TrEMBL record:
GO terms for biological process: lipopolysaccharide transport; transmembrane transport. The chain crosses the membrane at residues 12-34, 68-86, 107-125, 285-304, 311-328, 340-363. The gene is lptG. InterPro entries: LptG (IPR030923), LptG/LptF_permease (IPR005495). This is LPS export ABC transporter permease LptG. Pfam families: LptF_LptG. Keywords: Cell membrane, Membrane, Transmembrane, Transmembrane helix. The lineage of its organism: Bacteria, Pseudomonadati, Pseudomonadota, Alphaproteobacteria, Sphingomonadales.
Length: 367
């Protein structure tokens, strides 16, 4: 029996069902309470716009609820773990399982399998529902909950690196091969030393050649000599794609994993820093997996004699371990955004650390 992952199919289904129902019951309670409080705080701003009413309030709930679900699902799984295991311990069911020959890992196995399923659902939910709703809610709140204007496609103040040179476009209009640039400044550098500055009122992509840009009415200033001259129409940036200029500010929360990956690739091609976005991309995968840790971190509430009077203390310890993980996860992600941690480490280090902590606590105390 010690070598079987699920010695009893009936026991596995029983524990998995208890854990699943309690976790989602806690999640439903949290969402109802938090959504109500959030709506009370934001309803004044929504109704402040003339013409908004009940329909806009329900629209806000529709956009905001997925964010609340995604944020508090790991907390719900943690609390569901503690409630399930504490109840089983209180009713001496854990003692009966251990008397039947089940190890601590075998007792937790059904919960971990269910948690893996929850993590998979959470990833799909975050990627397909939460990201679009976040982008829509941000766009709506930016116009004070009024009608969202159509995107004109005009961008401003874009920087692109071309080898050792830096290019700034004050205004960018159009997309693809029809991209038009205005107020262009090119900083020509050699060994990080500024040699000359080229300015032009307009430029367009060379659609016939399929690459490079045509700069019109250009003026060149020689930094070394301190002289300037008109150079007319010139070409520059044969390897610069139009989308490198049209890239807007990237909001990782409002993009799916695939969209964020493509945005990071474009930003890298444009020579822009991407460490913070790479950390957010990795966290889109490691974040949902936090649900898998919760049965392990909350398992301390399952073992020990309930009649010893320490069940409450064990539950508090399990809750403390779970909440400490969330603190460490947010801290690591913040350090990644600041550049102190590499992106992969910022996203995965807390998960791996607390996986080892949970296993150590379980083995040292129960196995």
């Amino acid at each position: 029996m010690q070598l079987q992952f699920f010695p009893s199919r009936t026991m596995a289904l029983y524990m998995g069902r208890l854990f699943l129902t309690r976790s989602f019951a806690v999640l439903a309670l949290l969402v109802i309470v938090l959504q109500t409080l959030d709506l009370l705080g934001e309803s004044g701003n929504i109704l402040a716009y003339k013409g908004n009413g009940d329909a806009q309030l329900w629209h806000y709930i529709f956009l905001r609820a997925p964010q609340i679900i995604a944020r508090f699902l790991p907390f719900a799984v943690l609390l569901g773990t503690l409630i399930t295991l504490a109840t089983l311990n209180q009713n001496s069911e854990v003692i009966a399982m251990k008397a039947a020959g089940l190890s601590a890992h075998q007792i937790l196995a059904p919960l971990i399998v269910v948690a893996i399923g929850i993590a998979g659902i959470s990833f799909v939910f975050n990627d397909r529902i939460v990201s679009p709703s976040t982008a829509a809610l941000d766009a709506w709140s930016n116009v004070d909950y009024g009608p969202i204007p159509t995107d004109s496609g005009v961008k401003t103040n874009a920087w692109v690196r071309d080898g050792n040179n830096l290019i700034n476009a004050g205004i960018i209009a159009g997309r693809g091969k029809a991209t038009q640039l205005r107020k262009i400044v090119i900083f020509n550098r050699v060994d990080n030393t500024l040699i000359s500055i080229i300015q032009a009122p307009r430029a367009h992509f060379d659609a016939q050649a399929g690459k490079g840009w045509v700069l019109q009415d250009a003026q060149q200033f020689d930094v070394t000599r301190g002289t300037g001259k008109a150079i007319g129409t010139i070409r520059f940036g044969p390897d610069i794609r139009p989308d490198q200029f049209t890239l807007a500010k990237v909001d990782a929360d409002g993009l799916t994993a695939n969209e964020l990956g493509m945005a990071i690739a474009d930003l890298k091609d444009a020579g822009r820093p991407t460490a913070a976005l790479e950390g957010s991309l990795w966290h889109k995968f490691s974040g949902p997996l936090s649900a898998v840790l919760m049965p392990l971190l909350g398992s301390v509430a399952a073992f020990g004699l309930a009649r010893s009077g320490r069940l409450f203390i064990r539950a508090v310890i399990g809750m403390a371990l779970g909440f400490t993980y969330f603190v460490a996860d947010n801290f690591a992600l913040a350090m990644g955004n600041l550049g102190a941690y590499p992106p992969f480490m910022a996203a995965w280090a807390p998960f791996l650390l607390f996986l080892l902590v949970g296993e150590t606590v379980l083995i040292r105390t129960e196995e």
